[in-house]
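Message: I would love a firmer grasp of how sequence relates to backbone shape in proteins. Thank you; the sequence and its tokens follow:
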Amino acid sequence: MKTILHAADRRGHVSFGWLDSHHSFSFGNYYDPEKVHFGMLRVLNDDVISGGSGFGTHSHDNMEIISIPLEGAIEHKDSMGTQAVINENDVQIMSAGTGIKHSEYNHHKDREANFLQIWIMPKEQNIKPRYDQRTFSTTERINQFQTVVAPDNDKAVWINQDAWVSLGSLKGGFSTSYTIKKSGNGVYAFVLNGSVTLNEQTLFKRDAMGIWEVDKIEIEATTDSELLLIDVPMVA
């Protein structure tokens, strides 16, 4: 088993007034040669956007881009003609493929929005761009992991990669295990709230740990906790 610990207070940080963002991996003006990616996971940004503000129209290609609102709502428009509002408990994914333009704004003008922006490198290059969004019941992740992104699960949004994204709401004292979905994959575990112990390493809010070359991860919630697991290939 191999592991890497990324403490919350060691993330990259930028603030532009309208945007306050913490970067788990090198992004924009933040560069750390030790934090460029975790396998096929390229970006995990924890973005807080002021009311009515957001990212103007910009381009992407050949990237799987996932948005998970934690608080508030994000308004999305893209060059495929999609217009949508992504609310708490929604998960959105875009396969940028051959190229797509989109914008993301805080849907509300009177309060902040906090969302996770996750980029995963694709399995196949230059596919036709696509969009998917789904609402998930939080009751289905209590003391278990709810798969919200997958290549093989029609209850989740589809991804162009052998990658799975899962969310768990774990009660304090609850123990479980997570079996990595595919041989050669690793898991990047990101604590949204609370504290958990993963294979004897305790993590707190917004701490993260990458784990690979192992089949199963042992997990214990030391307090009521919310945990994000990103299960990705470690090599292309």
About this structure: The mean pLDDT is 97. The CA atoms of residues 211 and 223 lie 22 Å apart.
